[in-house]
Specification:
It contains three helices and no strands. By secondary structure, it is mostly helical. It has a domain of 48 residues.
């Protein structure tokens, strides 16, 4: 199925760009601290829970933190903006 807006980057493309920027800027990048915090929380949860190992928890926590950064800040909302009704536009 084709994307509705192919000019907009996908979540995978945004993630790759963000990880590259975090690697270049280090701790000064705005996403680095939340992702590290998510990884630590995930690793602790993985160490405490008998079902998941700490490396899996580390990866899952970092991935969830990174996804949360995108879903809250960078992905466009599905709500229409005010005045964007095409039926009222003049030809």
């Amino acid at each position: 199925m084709a994307r509705q807006h192919p000019e907009e980057p996908t979540l995978v493309e945004l993630t790759i760009e963000e990880v590259k920027a975090m690697g270049k800027q280090g701790i000064d990048h705005p996403s680095t601290r939340p992702v590290i915090t998510g990884g630590v929380v995930g690793a602790i949860a993985g160490a405490v829970l008998p079902v998941v190992t700490w490396p899996v928890g580390l990866f899952a926590g970092a991935a969830i933190a990174l996804y949360t950064r995108f879903s809250c800040a960078k992905l466009p909302s599905s709500r229409p903006t005010a005045g964007a009704n095409p039926s009222t536009a003049k030809s």
